Amino acid sequence: MRISVIGCGYLGAVHASAMVELGHDVVGVDVDGAKIAQLAAAKPPFFEPGLPEILTSASASGRLRFSTDIADAADATVHFVAVGTPQTRDGRAADLSYVDAAIEGLLPFLKPGDLVVGKSTVPVGTAARLASVIAGRGNGATLAWNPEFLREGYAVRDTIEPDRLVYGVADERAAAVLDEVYAAALAAGTPRIVTDYATAELVKVSANAFLATKISFINAMAEIAEATGADVTQLADALGHDTRIGRRFLNAGVGFGGGCLPKDIRAFTARAEELGRGESVVFLKEVDAINLRQRQRVVDRAIEALGGSVHGRKIVVLGVTFKPESDDVRDSPALDVAVQLKGLGADVVATDPQGIENARLRHPQLSYEPDLDLALRDADLVVLVTEWRPYRDLDPVRVGASVRARTIIDARNVLDPETWRAAGWHYRGMGRASGA
Ligand code: NAD
């Protein structure tokens, strides 16, 4: 099939390359000329494990092209829309201007039988509105909404072998076209749910709302655990054995971030209010508040660990990305903590295996040191905020020899407190008995 992918960011670049893997002929279109130049040279414009390999093989096959000109989508019959839907600058709602612009841009090139497929995460009701915009043109094209569930860090696998496919469609033909697009994944047994637009849009936002709730739930339990001397990691292990609850996404820590969960739950509450149903999801505001509170708790812990003031003290922040295996720093709790500590006068040195370039663009006021050993030298306090493997694997004895004070805040609860304490460290986790 001939496919276009409009918007080649974290979602679209992976999707375009993966569609070639699934056997199609693809053109990726983006308004960002620098990004397109990199992709056209088979260089991923961001870090995503597995993307270099599929981008290289897709480009070499001659079935993947990139362009800044939407007119190059004219030959395709299926057009995926994967542009951003960030939070509006002045409110909680989703900014749909990029989606609207992408659809407007596509309209002159749509032909009878073409299918436009929304991938971006949008407020419920958007697909129905866009379907009438497309129908209004009378060019015989139709719309489907096919939300994306990929996780950064696992995006390639999640796109080629998704947990499930959800099609929001207005007619059977659209479902048949999507079946053809995803034939390889369906043949491998991927479950698919064919439904209406509104349900498909809601599946995505409610999945993110559920995941966010699970994380804030365990962080709330961590707050209570701390007040009572209980240990939230043991609590989570015990809860997780209940198959109705499950252990995944029950890790207490500095909370969630990134370009999806925070803005998606805010947009969900904003949309529910527009629908006169704000009270149905009012709990998501508390989920958001609990989440943001964790960042503050880490900062407070740092102040406490340094005896009441961080001013002039060297604090090494391990991690700036919102999660490991990604270079994405959008709404990153780690970066937020680093910025807050810097604002309080600390001498902050942040390090990260992949995220420094992006972090520097947003927060040039911070000092960055890519070399972990150099970063740690003479630290008064170490704060682990993103659970990259090299940080999880740190040897407390070796690190202990280069820091000024052996004090660590494990804001992801990924270190073994006993091992660190045995090496002479003052260890503080989140919702774990302080033990010291
Ligand atoms: P992103 O910012 O990395 O990418 C968006 C891209 O769209 C950018 O490259 C931008 O230049 C381009 N763009 C904007 N307007 C355009 C236009 N008119 N024509 C062509 N290109 C245009 O964002 P992302 O993380 O890829 O997210 C995209 C959408 O996918 C969002 O709705 C997001 O919520 C959703 N989503 C993201 C993920 C994820 O993990 N990143 C997962 C699932 C869903």
Automatic annotation (TrEMBL):
Its EC number is 1.1.1.22. It catalyses: UDP-alpha-D-glucose + 2 NAD(+) + H2O = UDP-alpha-D-glucuronate + 2 NADH + 3 H(+). Residues 316-417 form the UDP-glucose/GDP-mannose dehydrogenase C-terminal domain. It is an enzyme of class 1 (oxidoreductase). Pfam families: UDPG_MGDP_dh (PF00984), UDPG_MGDP_dh_C (PF03720), UDPG_MGDP_dh_N (PF03721). GO terms for molecular function: oxidoreductase activity. InterPro entries: 6-PGluconate_DH-like_C_sf (IPR008927), NAD(P)-bd_dom_sf (IPR036291), UDP-Glc/GDP-Man (IPR017476), UDP-Glc/GDP-Man_DH_C (IPR014027), UDP-Glc/GDP-Man_DH_C_sf (IPR036220), UDP-Glc/GDP-Man_DH_dimer (IPR014026), UDP-Glc/GDP-Man_DH_N (IPR001732), UDPglc_DH_bac (IPR028357). Pathway: Nucleotide-sugar biosynthesis; UDP-alpha-D-glucuronate biosynthesis; UDP-alpha-D-glucuronate from UDP-alpha-D-glucose: step 1/1. Keywords: NAD, Oxidoreductase. PANTHER family: UDP-GLUCOSE 6-DEHYDROGENASE TUAD. Belongs to the UDP-glucose/GDP-mannose dehydrogenase family. This is UDP-glucose 6-dehydrogenase. It comes from Luethyella okanaganae.
